[in-house]
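Field reference: sequence -> structure
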Amino acid sequence: MSLRGVSKDALVASATIGLLLTVGYYVGKSLRMDIFKSHSSSLRRLCVLQRTMEDELNRIMVACEQSQFMANLARLIRAEKAIEIGVYTGYNALSIALALPQDGRLVACDVSEEFTNIGKPFWKEAGVAHKVDLRLQPALRTLGNPPLRSMVRRFQDSFNSLGRVIRPAEDDLETKSIDQLNKKLHKDARISLSMLTVGDGLTLAFKL
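Structure field:
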């Protein structure tokens, strides 16, 4: 293609756009790798383990970007205590525990010893096992403990249930429950609420 007749400004603009796209691609690719490398070895190994698990429930694992974001929020507000309802194999529990101080405490609620046992070695390897208070019983029983009610800042993932909250099926009790919770939080004047489209949805609720 001949460049004859093309203005100098157009050529400069075209070259600049090409350079920016090249630099953007390189920086983006490098940044993704740097973010991945910034995870502890335990987080990387557990993440890979989760991705390769031959289990039909692996879809319930928290999105990596959600877990990283919640851990950074915990650092930002200098959280010392946290509650997780639904531990699965412990990826997010590890992420949050790493964000807490050495004397911090994560109350981890689940009912499956089989799945939570997968994460325990990784908690120990990362040096945070002493922070994780695993409660293998229904979460309602654990949350009935008065001291736990003082943990008022709430981060809830999966608020949009993969978009199903827009029109939940009649037999989809899980999505209906999420929809009801979203509506209840929206009407609660005692909290400051934000719903973010990170992963499959993330709700932030801060007590006023």
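Note: The chain has one domain: 59-207.
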